[in-house]
Sequence to fold (266 residues):
Amino acid sequence: MDETTWLWFATLGMLAGSAALFLTGRKRTQDEEGHSIAHGLVPLFAAVAYFAMAVHQGQVTLSSGRVFLFARYLDWSVTTPVLLLGLSMTALHGAHRRAGLVAGLLASDLVMIVTGLFFGASQDPFTKWAWYIASCAAFVAVYYVLFGPLRAEAQMRDAERRSTYNRNVVILSVLWLLYPVVVLLGPDGLEIWSATLVTACIAIIDLVAKVVYGFISMAGSKRITDADLERGDVSPAMLSTHSVPSGEPELAAAMSAGSLRQRAQI
Ligand code: RET
Fold:
């Protein structure tokens, strides 16, 4: 397959993945609803970027003749913060806690992507490798937060949140590590791999990191929600709707248990 075919393949794969994630996502609590919407939107946004690249708009030809696909970075600047926010919500039981820490995580991630964009657009070797090192340093900061303070937060939660965080953080960090390696080997870096090989590899890694990881993360948030509902640990304010849909008796039970608990605490 040539490079453009890979870009079309990724566009269609992302669209199908987004539709599947939106259609299967459950929305019983606000937490679950947040995860479903986030994981549905991530591949949808990627589809926009892949389409732009497939029709040769999301790229520029540099004076050296190298074609630089900058639309990848537009995709990553939106989708990576969303994925990190989802993981933070799992560790923190809602993202409203430790807002400074979460903001620091997202800012480091954005620095990683923006410096990566300048790396890709550079032609002078010194400038290029300076940007690469800066991007890797920001990547280390992202890992530090994920495996340091956020992991410590997750260990203080219930068994389902803890195990979901521990599983997701390992899968996410292994997948993300592949990006700087593939980009390093390709035409933007050491020029060992061809543009087609890099585009094919990134298309596959992107589909796994967005769609497959999306399903894994949504399964985790389903487990967490099931356990919360079973324990009656869901107050009416945490539900995604204030009216209980008929045919959802477990919600009605959890709501009344949750409101009883709330009243007991007053
Ligand atoms: C770049 C530039 C070189 C240095 C580093 C990079 C890291 C990229 C990463 C991208 C992750 C993208 C994901 C998209 C999925 O939605 C920018 C290649 C460190 C980690 C996960």
About this structure: The CA atoms of residues 183 and 189 lie 6 Å apart.
